[in-house]
Amino acid sequence: MNDDEINIQEMADDELYELMKEDLYDGYAQEVAEEVSEMLARGHQPYDILTNGLVPGMDIVGVDFRDGILFVPEVLMAAKAMKAGMAILRPLLVETGAEKIGTMVVGTVKGDIHDIGKNLTAMMMEGAGFEVFDLGVNNSVDNFMLAIAEHKPDIIGMSALLTTTMPYMRVVIDALVEAGIRQDLIVMVGGAPLNEAFAEDIGADAYCRDAAVAVETAKKFMQLRREKAR
User: Fold this and answer.
1) What radius of gyration, in Å, describes the C-alpha atoms of the chain?
2) What is the number of alpha carbons within 13 Å of residue 52 lying toward its C-beta?
């Protein structure tokens, strides 16, 4: 969006939220940051800006990515715009203690240094209201176990792009079983060579073919968990 065309200070709140969604979809990071700041200046709560502007915008991105309307480069641009908005809101959300959906630890497994899909998943999970701890690439069992001990996540996400590194996911899951914590965690796996049968075979809870599916799956599992806890 060109600043010459639009004066965001003159827009009504609902119009500005619509613009925020559109700019996020189009990957305009600077504009999204400006719109978030404008909403804060108008006295809107950080959580309301997140749930009325950023999250619905990212939801549309997720649906269009799943349906093949958007592709990875566009989604990465949208995720960057989301991050620009979140960079302003995150410290304020922490202060207000805004409710998060859940916590996730995610990483690419040992021997594998591919991370585009994982990064996309982490960004979209964050956009959906999860707190995400991204361990990066080439993660050993110890890395996952230390992160679990430190962050006490609801969800563990593992990624692999090489058929040779896929079996390491089972090593991690076996370690969770051995430590007696497997039942406390939702384990989601993803990566191009994986499929549902593989996920089932290694004892994961779900195979997610892309970031949009990962977000949908994580939300479903957290909903089930909340219902059980009642």
Assistant:
1) 19
2) 17
- Give 32's strand partners: none
Domains of the chain: 8-99 (1.10.1240.10), 100-230 (3.40.50.280)
Q: What would the two tokens of residue 57 be?
A: 């915008």
Task: Count the alpha carbons within 13 Å of 227 in the hemisphere toward its beta carbon.
Answer: 6
C-beta separation of 131 from 221 below 8 A: no
The C-alpha atoms of residue 69 and residue 64 are separated, in whole angstroms, by 5
CA distances from 85 to 101, 137, 178 (A): 18, 26, 41
Q: Is the pLDDT of residue 135 over 50?
A: yes
What would the two tokens of residue 138 be? 């080439």
Q: How far apart are CA 133 and CA 80, in angstroms?
A: 17
CA–CA separation, 116 and 119 (whole Å): 5
Confidence grade of residue 3 (pLDDT, cut at 50, 70, 90): very low
